[in-house]
C-alpha cells in the first residue's frame, strides 16, 4: 500500500531528477487537447514510485464533450484501480487563447495550466490524490502526445512538496 512516507522518502533520494517529462522520442502525430479527449475512450495506466518500485495500476473510461462554441471541454473520467478503489473525476477545461487552456477537476488545487505546442500537450497542476492510505497533495507535470499507431500517451512526473517522486504512464485508445 502506498503511503505518504513512500512519496517523501523517494523524493528525497531523487531530489536532482527532472520535474517535467521529456518530449516523446520516435514518430508522433500532432495533437490538441480537444482532439485527444473528445468522444468515448478507454485507457490503462501505471503509477510507479521510483525509490521503492511500488506500482499501482488502473484502467479508465473517458467521455469528452465540447461546448461553448468549442471553447469548453468537459472530460468525465471513471477510474478503477487494481486494489478495487473506484473514482469518478471530471475535468472542465476552458480555452484561454490559441493553444492555451485552463482546467479544474474535483481534486485539483487551483487551476491546471495547459499548453499545446510543437504537436504535444503540456499539462501542469496540483491535486489532492486519494489512496487507501489517505490524501496526499501531489504536483503533476504531464506531456500528452499521439503515437503513430493512434494511441494517445500521457506521461507524467509526480512531485511531493516540489520533489519528483513518481511517474505515471496512461495509454488511451479511442
Textual characterization of the structure:
- There is one protein chain.
- The protein has 174 residues and is mainly beta.
- Helices cover 9% and strands 63% of the residues.
- It has one domain: Calycin beta-barrel core domain (Lipocalin, Beta Barrel), CATH 2.40.128.
- It is built from two helices and eleven strands, in the order αβαββββββββββ.
- β10 and β11 form a beta hairpin.
- The N terminus is likely disordered.
Task: Write down the Rg.
Answer: 16 Å
> What is the count of distinct domains?
1
Q: Kindly, what is the distance between the CA atoms of the first and last residues, rounded to a whole number of angstroms?
A: 31 Å
Number of strands: 11
| Count of helical stretches | 2
User: What series of H and E elements makes up the topology?
Assistant: HEHEEEEEEEEEE
By CATH, the architecture is named Beta Barrel
Q: What is the topology, as strand order, of the major beta sheet?
A: 2-3-4-5-6-7-8-9-10-11
Low-pLDDT runs = 1-17
The SS-based structural class is: mainly beta
State the CATH superfamily name.
Calycin beta-barrel core domain
General shape: globular
Strand content: over 45%
- What is the CATH T-level topology? Lipocalin
Please outline the major beta sheet.
10 strands, antiparallel, barrel
Percent of residues in helices comes to under 10%
CATH class: Mainly Beta
Please tell me the overall pLDDT: 90
